[in-house]
Amino acid sequence: MRWSEDARSNSCAIWSRAELSRVSTPLSSSPNGGLRIEFSEIEKRYGMRLALRGVSLAIDAGECVALVGQNGSGKTTLLKVTAQLTRPSRGELSFYSGQAQIPVEQVKSRVGMVGHHILLYDELTAEENLTFFARLSGLSDPAERAARALEPAGLAGRANDTVRTFSRGMRQRLSIARALLASPSLLLLDEPGAGLDPEGQRWLATTIVNLRDTGCTIMMSTHGRNETQSAVTRAIRLEAGRVTHDSGAGGDPSEVLVLAAVRDTAGESD
Amino acid sequence: MNLARASGVILAKELRTEFRSRELLGTTVVFVLIVIVLFSFTFNPTSSESRRFGPGLLWLAFLFAGSLMLQSSFLREQTNDTLAALRLAPIDPFSILAGKMAANFLFLLLVELILLPVFAVLYNVAILPVLAPLLLVLALGTTGLAATGTVFSAVAAQARLRELLLPLLLLPVLAPVLIASTEATVGVLRDPSELSGVWLTFLACFDVVFLTAAWMVGEYLLEE
Predict the structure, then answer these.
(1) What's the start-to-end Cα distance of chain B, in Å?
(2) CA B103, B106, B108, B111 torsion: positive or negative?
(3) Contact at 8 Å (CB) between B33 and B118?
(4) What angle do CA B156, B158, B162 make, to 5 degrees?
(5) Which of A184, B20, B43, B135 allows an S-S link to A112, with CB 3.0 to 4.6 Å?
(6) Which domain holds residue B9?
(7) SS3 string of A69-129?
(8) DSSP bridge partners of A36
(9) Domains in chain A, ordered, with CATH?
C-alpha cells in the first residue's frame, strides 16, 4: 500500500505538458525526420551472462520511448546496441528513414547519445569539447555550432571553463548539448535526468518534447518518475533482458510507467 | 569525414589535452633523464665504449618512456567513457587509433629529442655529424613503438588487469623493433656509411605490416 502511495505522489510531481510549454528554451531540430528502428530477436551475451534475451521491437519514427526496469534489466545494453557501441550476439537491427532502409554504417551520423557517463573531456573547456565533437561529426563551422549549442544549455557564460570545474548538473547539461550538436534523427538517452536539479529536469523535458515534436525518434532509460516522462509516448519495461510490458505505439504509457515506479520502489525497499 | 581529417582532429585534441596538463610528458622526461644519468655514473663510459653499448641504453630508456606514455593513451578515455563518444562519431574507427598513434609518436619523439643531447654529453658521443641517419632510425623505431603500443593500449584498457597486461603483451612484440633499432643506431654511431640497410628495411616493413594490421582490425579492437 505504501509503495502505491509513493508512486502516486511521485507521479503528481510530473510536469504537465501545458506547464512544460511555458518553459522557454531549446533548441535542436531533426531536419531529416526520425528513424524507424526494428529489433529482431536481439540477444546480447557478456561472457556467461545474457543481458538481452530475444528482444523484438519496432519503434516508429517520432516516438518517444521510455525504457524502464530495475538495474541490470538490460536498458543500457539495449541503448548501446542501438547506438552500435556494442554488437548483438544474435539477432538483427534495422534502421529506416521513411520507407527506405539505411545502411547501418550510415546511421551513426544521425544518432545522438547521452550515456551513463558524460562522454566529455575534463581537461578541455565546454566550448573546446563541443567544437571537437562538431568537427568529428563533420559539421560546418564547428566553433559557431558549439557556441550556439551552449546557449540553450545555460552554459554560454562558462564556455571557456574546463569541464573539470563544472558541477554534476552542468556536466550533464553539456553532455546533452553534445548529443544534440548534429541535430540527430535518433536520440538515445541513458538516464538523462541524473544529476540535474528541478530546473535542469524541466529544461531537459522541454528539450525532449521539442525534439519529439520535430519528428526525432527518442529512446531513453529512466528510473522512477520524473519530469522527462511527460514527453513519453510509449513505455517499455525490461526485466532480466526481456520485454515484459509494452504500452505499444499510440498506447497510453502511464500504466507501464506507474507499474515500473511501483516495482522500482518495491525493489529499493527490499 | 575522411580518415586523414578525422585522425587530424583526434591528434589535435590529444596534443591540446597533453600540453594543457603536461602530466605525461613531464613525468616521462624526468624519469628517462634519471635513467640515462644513473647509467652514466655506473659505467663511466669512454667514447668508444659508449658507441658500443650506448644505443642499447638509449633504446632501453625509450622503451621505459613508451611504457609510461602508452599505458595512459586509452586509459584516460575511460574517465568519462569518452572512447564511447569517439566511437559514436561517424568516422572510420581506425582514425581513432591513427590519431592516437600520431600523438604518441610525437610525444615519444619529443622525449627522444630532449634525451639525445643529454646522452651525447654524458656518454661523450658526437651525434651532430650523424644526426640525419640517427633521426631516420629514431623515426622508424618510434613509429613501431607508437603503433604497437597504441594498439595494445587499446586492448589492455578494456581488461581488468590492464596495468599488468600492457607490458606482457607489448614487450614480446616490441623485441624485434628494439633489436633492429639498437643495431641500426650502433651502425649510425660507429660509421654512418656502414649503416646496414637490412635493419632499416626491417623497421620499415614492421611499421607497414603493423599499421596495416591495425587498420584491418581497428574496429574490433575498440569494441567493448
Answers:
(1) 23
(2) negative
(3) yes
(4) 45
(5) A184
(6) 3-221
(7) CCCCCCHHHHHHHHCCCCCCCEEEEEEEECCEEECHHHHHHHEEEECCCCCCCCCCEHHHH
(8) A96
(9) 2-14+39-116+189-269 (3.40.50.300)
Helix (H) or strand (E) holding A21: helix A17-21
Nearest to A115 among B9, B81, B89 (CB): B81
Backbone φ, ψ for residue A96 (5° rounding): -130, 140
Tell me the pTM: 0.86
CB A186 within 8 Å of CB A35: yes
Looking at residue A30, what is its pLDDT?
55
Strand, helix or coil for residue A16: coil
Q: For residue A252, give how far its alpha carbon lies from the nearest alpha carbon of chain B (Å).
A: 32
Angle at A88 between CA A82 and CA A92, to 5 degrees: 75
Q: Is the pLDDT of residue A8 over 60?
A: no
Q: Report the distance separating Cα A258 and Cα A18, nearest Å.
A: 21
* ipTM higher than threshold 0.85: yes
Cell numbers placing A9:
505522489
Q: Could you give the strand order of the β-sheet that contains A64-68, starting from the edge strand earlier in sequence?
A: A111-114, A186-190, A217-221, A64-68, A234-239, A242-246
Quote the pLDDT of residue A26. 43
What is the residue-wise DSSP string for B139-199? HHHHHHHHHHHHHHHHHHHTSTTHHHHHHHHHHHHHHHHHHHHHHHHHHHHH-GGG--HHH
Which residues of chain A neighbour B224 with C-beta distances below 8 Å? 80, 85-86
Q: Are strands A234-239 and A242-246 parallel, antiparallel or unpaired?
A: antiparallel
- Mean residue pLDDT of chain A comes to 84
Closest CA to A108 of A129, A122, A118, A93: A93
CB neighbour list of residue A78: distance below 8 Å, 6 or more residues apart: A39, A42, A52, A55, A67, A219, A238
CA proximity to B100, closest of B11, B172, B180, B37: B11
Domain count, chain B: 1
Nearest to A235 by CA among A32, A61, A11, A65: A65
Q: What is the pLDDT of residue A266?
A: 65
Cell 505522489 belongs to residue: A9
**Angstrom distance (rounded) from CA B73 to CA B81:** 13
**B19 is written with which cell numbers?**
600540453
Show the cell assigned to A132: 571537437
Of chain B residues 52-81, which have a CB less than 8 A from chain A? 79-81
